[in-house]
Specification:
Layout (H helix, E strand, L loop, with lengths): L3 E6 L8 H17 L5 E3 L5 E3 L5 E6 L3 E7 L3 E7 L3 H9 L2 H7 L3 H18 L16 E8 L3 E8 L4
Helix pairs in contact: 2-4
């Protein structure tokens, strides 16, 4: 199965916390996809999974959007909107060579951030420094199904053997 990407705006109800709105939005996306309510659990390192289901899921959200990726193999997803702090913290998640290659291009910086976050989720190894995660690799399939200067969604999967 090719990965399925579900997206929805996060629209908090009056008096609802942002976190509760995010959870409700994700639950709504998953219920609509599976045709019935599902329970999202988390494994011992915090990765989400659906109770009594073999599908792999990855969840992300930004200021105003929730994203869920579903696949029959491990997957990572990340969504981010442009924030002024990204250039200031670039040295925390990019190598010197990556910083030089990206320069001041906002969309490339967003792609780099979401790529590293999505691969981090795919790797399922807590504590891996983001700087140590490659932006490209022959063992990874990285796609950007939504990409603009202000918002990027990145999917990370292990590449299939030919």
């Amino acid at each position: 199965m090719d990965p399925i990407l579900l997206t929805a705006p996060i629209e908090p109800h009056p008096g609802e916390s942002r976190r509760d709105a995010e959870r409700r939005t994700v639950a709504s996306l998953l219920s609509a996809h599976y045709g019935h309510p599902v329970t999202v659990e988390h494994d011992d390192i915090g990765a989400p999974r659906i109770a009594r289901c073999r599908d792999y899921i990855s969840i992300s959200h930004c200021r105003d959007m929730a994203v869920v990726a579903i696949a029959n193999e491990p997957i990572g997803v990340d969504v981010e909107t442009w924030r002024e702090q990204l250039p200031r913290i670039a040295d925390k998640f990019l190598t010197q060579a990556e910083q030089q290659a990206i320069g001041t291009d906002h969309e490339l910086l967003l792609r780099a951030w979401t790529t590293k976050e999505a691969v981090y989720k795919l790797y399922h190894r807590p504590g891996t420094p983001l700087r140590d995660i490659p932006l490209s690799s022959t063992s990874l399939l990285i796609t950007h199904p939504i990409s603009s200067p202000d918002r990027v969604v990145t999917l990370a999967q292990y590449a299939q053997e030919p």
